[in-house]
Write a structure and sequence with these properties.
Layout (H helix, E strand, L loop, with lengths): L1 H15 L8 H11 L1 H4 L23 H10 L13 H11 L4
Helix pairs in contact: 2-5, 4-5
Bound molecules: heme C.
Length: about 100
């Protein structure tokens, strides 16, 4: 009972804390469709040679922070998104691409 109360308090605290951000995949989907789908494909089947297909889990088996860094600064043919998307936006997009399988 005491454990249950502790878990409940922790869950409520997490739910109301604006800073503990779990990626919002619905917002992530909108951002993905407008900024990423042109190369990575609307359903995660890449349309550009060399771009990973997220529907096949290509290149996303890495921590969020590593992916965030690549998306922020860009990589070879991929443009940088720093200044276009906030880190929070990018984390939302990452949450969405992790659901594409
Ligand atoms: C102009 C085409 C283009 C756009 C737009 C684009 N990408 Fe990419 N992306 C690429 C290419 C090409 C690569 C492979 C880069 C390489 O390693 O050579 C890549 C790689 C990646 C990777 C793998 C990075 C890694 O560290 O291995 C991720 C994740 C990714 N893109 C996410 C995104 C997201 C999210 C967006 C939208 C915010 C986006 N890309 C927009 C072309 C694009």
């Amino acid at each position: 009972m005491k454990l249950f109360a502790t878990l409940l308090v922790a869950a409520v605290a997490a739910g109301f804390s604006g800073d503990l951000h779990a990626g919002d995949m619905f917002k992530g989907r909108q951002l993905y469709n407008s900024h990423c789908a042109v190369c990575h494909g609307a359903g995660g089947q890449a349309t550009m040679p060399g771009a990973p297909s997220f529907a096949r889990q290509e290149r996303i088996i890495k921590p969020d922070f590593t992916l965030l860094a690549s998306i922020r600064t860009g990589k070879n043919a991929m443009p940088a998104f720093q200044g276009i998307l906030t880190d929070r936006d990018i984390l939302d997009v990452i949450a969405y691409i992790r659901t594409m399988n």
